Amino acid sequence: MELHQKREGDRLTLAISGKCTVEHAAALRAALLEAVSAGPKLGLDVSGVEEADVTFLQLLLATALTMEREGASLRRSGALCEAVRQAAHVSGFDQTPPLQTFFADEERDG
Amino acid sequence: MAVTAQAESQRFLTMTLGHEIFAIDIFSVREILDYTDITRIPQTPEFMRGVVNVRGSAVPVVDLRMKFGLGQVERTLNTRIVIVEIRHDDAVSVMGALADSVKEVLELETDRIDPPPRMGAAVRADFIRGIGKHADRFILILDVDKVFSSDEIQDMSQMFAEGAPSAPGAPFASAQVEEEFVR
Amino acid sequence: MSEIDPSIAIYVEETRELLAELERGLLDLENDPSDMERVDACFRAMHTIKGGGAMFGFEEISRFTHDVETVLDRVRAGALPVTRELLTLTLAAKDHILALLEAPAEAGPDLREASDALLDSFAAFLPEAREEAAEAQASPSQQHPTATLDGETYACEAEPGPPSIYWVRFRPAPRILHSGNDPVRLLAECDGLGRARVLRHGPMPDLDAPDFDPEETYGVFDVIVRTPCGGNDLRDVFIFVDGDSDVLVERIHRGTLRDADLDELVRALAGLDAAPPEVVLDALSQALSAKLAFITEAKARVAEKTARLTGAEPSKQRQTAPSTAAASTTLRVDAARLDSVVNMAGELVILQSRLRQAVQARDLDAAAAVDEDLERLTDAMRDVALGLRMLPIGTVFSQFTRLLRDLSATLGKEVDFEARGGDTELDKTVIDRIKDPLVHILRNSLDHGVEPPDAREAAGKPRRGRITLSASHSGGNVVIAIVDDGRGIDVAAVRKKAVERGLLPADADVSEKEILEMIFAPGFSTAEKISDISGRGVGMDVVKRNIEALRGMVELESVLGQGTTVTIKLPLTLAIIDGFSVVVGGDSFIVPLVNLRGFQERFLAGETRTVENMERMGELIPVVSLRRLFDVPGDQPGYERVVVTEVEGEMVGFCVDKVVGRQQAVIKSLDDCYRHLKWISGTTINGDGSISLILDVPQLVRFVRGQEDSRLHAARASRTLTQ
Q: Rounded mean pLDDT of chain C?
């Protein structure tokens, strides 16, 4: 798994790529926590994710929930790669309310 | 658990059998029990005193004094059963040794332990790992694994079971066996 | 997936069991090729093996089983008949899978070649074009006019009839990922079986929650799936996580629904993540009946279809609870037994509080009542706990069917093998250890007993021989009998051989039974030439020794020209023995109840010998003084109790000082250094911490007999000398 942060003004984009599986879950959580605490305008770029298991989807959901609590919302920037789309689809994560917009096709800003 | 000599010094448990002082590697010792009733097992040599209950298992007790030919242990307040772990053909088993008394835990420097004398010792030379000296007395250090895995203990059938041919109608046991059996 | 994944070990273990099941199924099919349930079971076993193979990195197994599975599926679909040839081939495939399973790491080129050779043979049973088969299989599901599954292929075989709607509830164990199972992958598989709609709900901690463990799995996945496959296919998806995670698969509707209907059903599940299944099913059936009312109405317009549709009325489907049967096959322990253990544990808690009350009130009567109840409960609990270790012996029997089938082919003999009483239960340890002796005896029966077909015909017997293996309970024992209708044992030949081997004096006056016993003596073999099958240096003496190590007995009976019967008697369990505690001087012994026939008494005057005779019910029986036999220290009392036992049909009494009473003894084995004392089967620790020796009465009698024989022999010898 690789992480890249890109900051444009108060907008922070975290690009996640590679294998996002249980081995990297703790690291990803730490990175997401840091990104969330940096400000309300967080975008995630998951277009480079090659493999995603339940931990990855759970972290997305947890992030979305936490941001919702803070009155913010999690945005996706960049395309939805097949690995993530498929994983989210078969497990129903794409239909969970906090993530519905994240996985919706239209929203794309990066 | 028996650990071979590597360190500069080793610790031993000393005990008495008659007038002799013996020592065994502390690593072989599992625990020391007060004398308790020993359940006799018939048709075994006299030095095999029987079994004792050590937390739910029946552990054989050997009367070392008798085995070494130093007379029978008289039961006194000081009599103890030393429970040891022995290795024998890769298996670890637990046995008890009857001792007149248990003295102390001694530290002996490895280079102060001499090889056993060829003869003249109180017990068979191959049972002795070495001779140590402490407070001007000689101490025989026993090779516990060898003592307890000796043929007399591990294969008592040599001495006693031949009198019982397993197939009926095959009477080739001799009268001599019967004699041994009742001795 | 890492190398040390424990779930791989589970896969290997489960595959072994599945292969055993497969073999049983195939052999049953040999007897009844029309048993479609068996075909189905074989197919499912193969299917599960294949699925797991791919999942756990056994690529070669997965590759190999693919075509085998396809062939079995064709049999299942009725496209192929069950033939002996096919069964032989599938049995070989089963052996090969086992070899692949046990091969270290990657399958070597040898194994791959073996795979290919077998696959070549299987190719003959495969349809010429795979598409045709797929179509043939898909056709049943097309009967229904509203089936919308056409054009989509799913990773399962279609069940006959219309597709069904299933509700799958999957609540992963929090640490499911640690066993290498990713819920997302399982759900993807589920998705591959049909059109699935998934609702993920239930707890999800905030990212910054202190107890959030990103490696754990949270929440519940509810899946509504429309599938042409059966519920078992869905269950198979979760087969490796079934133990830890909650998995529920229920058919909620037989018939199809539109995608939008599935969405609606999923919505009906919202908020029910913690609800029990009944509540969820209620919600689903409400949502369904609204839909179905509409659908039924629509269907009613298609007049000729109406009748058929009402037959598939869905709302009552769930009462058939299809999951129970499947669950019980994966349970290793009978659930009823577990339940009773739990109940008894509850009783124990109550007793404990009653005891406390009694103690606090210093009420001895109340405490005595508790003690009584506790004794009853302890007995019952022990029985149930031991029952947990009990397995039907049939699990080994089935392996013998295969063994004899293959052996008779090798030996050019024809034999019918029948195993009876396979449901007789025995301690697992005993079952594990009786297998080899049984194999040996069966081999002997076939090799030395049953004659070649021509010889049988010449002897006026049917060409096909017959070997029967039966198991039954008898008292505290299980009796296993192996009966063949072969040539029997030539007692004269045995005697001659025994004399040649120096096992018997030439002029010995021994009964036929005793001569037959010689076969069990070390160094004896009646086989004139050493064959491949038996007589490989392992003789019947080893068989006897193994059986005796299980506290069992083995006996031979034979009628020349008519056959041989080997009878094995085994104790039900090795762990506990029911017996009477007796005391001689300071020694205490347990006499097992199985051998006990009664008690008598005797008064002594003067010296006694070790063995004397006394009268019992008008007959003289030998009586052994344990005091003298065991050299018990102390004075001989003038009054003794006699414990009467029966061994091999003979009564033998043992004199003791006192009979203490009945006792259930937990057997502790005696240290190996006492192994020469065959007449001790173990020790037991009494309530007061003292130790009793458990007597092996048959061995003890044998021992005494040996003693007496040698004494008489010695007496005769010395008499001869003095003459």
A: 79
Say if CB B44 and CB C587 are below 8 A apart.
no
Q: C10 or A55, which is more confident?
A: A55
Q: How far apart are CA B43 and CA B55, in angstroms?
A: 25
Which of C693, C705, C718 has the CB atom closest to B41's CB atom?
A: C693
Is B10-181 a CATH 2.40.50.180 domain? yes
Indicate yes or no: CB of A58 within 8 angstroms of CB of C198.
no
Domain boundaries, chain B: 10-181
Confidence of residue C673 (pLDDT cuts 50, 70, 90): confident
CATH code assigned to C6-142 = 1.20.120.160
Which residue do the tokens 């769930």 mark?
A: C318
CATH code for the part of the protein at C392-571: 3.30.565.10
User: DSSP letters along C121-151, please?
Assistant: HHHTTS-SSHHHHHHHHHHHHHSSTT---TT
Greatest Cα-to-Cα distance within chain C, rounded to the nearest angstrom: 117
Contacting partners of chain A (3+ CB pairs under 8 A): C
Nearest chain B Cα to C667, which residue? B57
Residues 697-716 of C with CB under 8 A from B: 702-703, 705-707, 709-714
Going across the sheet that includes C477-484, the strands are C415-420, C465-474, C477-484, C563-571, C553-559
Q: Which of C165, C469, C217 is nearest to A22 (CA)?
A: C217
CB contact under 8 A, B41 and C677: yes
Of C517, C678, C710, which is closest to B173 when you measure between CB atoms? C710
Q: Say what the pLDDT of residue B54 is.
A: 85
- CATH superfamily entry for domain C576-714: SH3 Domains (2.30.30.40)
Query: Is ipTM over 0.90?
Result: yes
How far is C403 from chain B, CA to nearest CA, in Å? Answer: 31
pLDDT value at C533 more than 70: no
Q: Give Dmax over CA atoms of chain A in angstroms.
A: 36
pLDDT at B161: 42
Give C-chain residues touching B56 at CB under 8 angstroms. Answer: 668, 685
Question: Is the Cβ pair C204, A55 closer than 8 Å?
Answer: no
Residue C154 has a pLDDT of 65
C193-211, pLDDT tens digit by residue?
888 889 998 888 888 888 8
User: How far is Cα B38 from Cα C516, in angstroms, rounded to an integer?
Assistant: 42
Q: What is the pLDDT of residue C717?
A: 67
Does C517 contact B164 at a Cβ distance shorter than 8 Å? no
Name, in order, each residue with C-beta under 8 angstroms of A25's C-beta and a sequence gap of 6 or more.
Answer: A55, A56, A59, C214, C215
pLDDT exceeds cutoff 80 at C596: yes
The dihedral of CA B61, B82, B93, C426: what is its sign? positive
Give me the residue spans of the domains in chain C: 6-142, 147-319, 335-388, 392-571, 576-714
Judge A/B contact: 3 or more CB pairs < 8 A. no
CB atoms within 10 A of CB C348: 13
pLDDT at C139: 41
Per-residue confidence band for C1, with pLDDT thresholds at 50, 70 and 90: very low
Token reading at C204 = 């999800």
Sort residue B174 into left (φ over 0), alpha (ψ -120 to 50) or beta.
beta
Q: Which two tokens stand for residue C304?
A: 């000729």
Other Cβ atoms within 10 Å of C482 Cβ, number = 20
pLDDT at position C75 over 70: yes
C214 in A contact zone (CB under 8 Å): yes
Tell me the whole-structure pTM to 2 decimals: 0.43
Letter for the amino acid at A45?
Answer: D
- Does the structure show a pLDDT above 50 at C304? no
**What tokens does B122 get?**
């109180």
